[in-house]
Design a protein that fits this description.
single chain, 74% helix
């Protein structure tokens, strides 16, 4: 009798494959968020999404990792990761994407590997900032500047609002870098799936609690089916993508900066999907030029790594 093949666990798959999968999943979020925000408020939508994501992962870790034993001695770390990686990151992100087109948000978030590299240089001694990395960072800043100035903030209030949204997105990337460093540096021995579940649920709960006095409670009966479809998709992709990412951050020999280089896929895929699926969005020359500059910066950074 031929034995049936066993399913391959995330630990048995290559790092590039899992990183690409996580980034492609994240790139679909821009369209989903824009669809959901047509009928609800940013912080409430984000909070509900991440609470659901955390709960979706409970069956995965429940049998293999007792709750109390799994998090014993790690609650401070879980709280810190939840603050930087979910509460602050996605609070800023949802507020920012509400002010800019989805494709533009994808391009700006595409510069997050460069933000991570800069933060890692000052926080981790084993990933120094070389001259080539410095050049790539400057090129990435130029790309972000091209995108931002292309909104002509000095011409209209709408352009100024969009530049404010870009600033919020850049700050969310900074928060993401801090969360990545915490997971890579401070979480030995902690099940990455359990950490993902606990931190995104906790961060989502904080986002929702903050949203109540600021935005009020959502009126569920008045929300369209498109809202619930977007919410279900976003909750599922968060659970999967964050779990994959945390598994990779815990792998021996995988650097935070090197892993985050795969996020260069996000602006290309995210912007393309937004232009394709959202009827009110189309590419501008400044957006395309900024995307090219940011992608070139990340490729240059990758060459410096090799």
């Amino acid at each position: 009798m031929v034995e049936a093949p066993r399913p391959v666990s995330p630990d048995g798959l290559s790092t590039p494959l899992l990183a690409i999968l996580a980034c492609l999943l994240w790139s679909t979020a821009f369209v989903g968020i824009k669809i959901g925000l047509r009928s609800t408020t940013p912080l409430s939508f984000a909070g509900i999404r991440f609470m659901l994501s955390g709960l979706l992962l409970v069956p995965v870790w429940w049998r293999r990792t007792p709750w109390g034993a799994g998090l014993a001695g790690h609650w401070r770390l879980v709280g810190q990761v939840a603050f930087f990686q979910t509460f602050l990151l996605y609070g800023l992100f949802y507020l920012g994407i509400a002010l800019v087109p989805a494709a533009l948000a994808a391009i700006i978030i595409g510069a997050s590997p460069l933000t991570t590299a800069l933060v890692v240089h000052f926080r981790l001694t084993d990933e120094p900032l070389t001259r080539m990395r410095g050049v790539s960072l400057i090129l990435g800043v130029v790309g972000v500047a091209v995108v931002s100035l292309g909104r002509t903030p000095w011409v209209s209030p709408a352009g100024l609002v969009e530049c404010g949204g870009i600033l919020l997105l850049l700050l969310s990337s900074l928060s993401s870098a801090m969360g990545n460093i915490l997971v890579a540096k401070e979480a030995p021995g902690l099940d990455p799936i359990l950490l993902t579940s606990a931190q995104i649920f906790l961060g989502g709960l904080f986002l929702f609690l903050v949203s109540v006095p600021l935005e009020g409670l959502p009126v569920w009966a008045a929300l369209p089916l498109s809202y619930f479809g977007a919410l279900a998709w976003l909750a599922g992709l968060s659970a999967v993508a964050f779990s994959l990412w945390f598994v990779l951050l815990r792998r021996p020999g995988v650097g935070v900066t090197q892993l985050n280089l795969w996020k260069f896929l996000i602006p290309v895929s995210g912007a393309g999907l937004s232009w394709l699926l959202l009827p009110d969005e189309s590419p501008r020359p400044s957006a395309l030029a900024g995307m090219v500059a940011i992608a070139a910066a990340i490729v240059l950074f990758h060459r410096a790594e090799s």
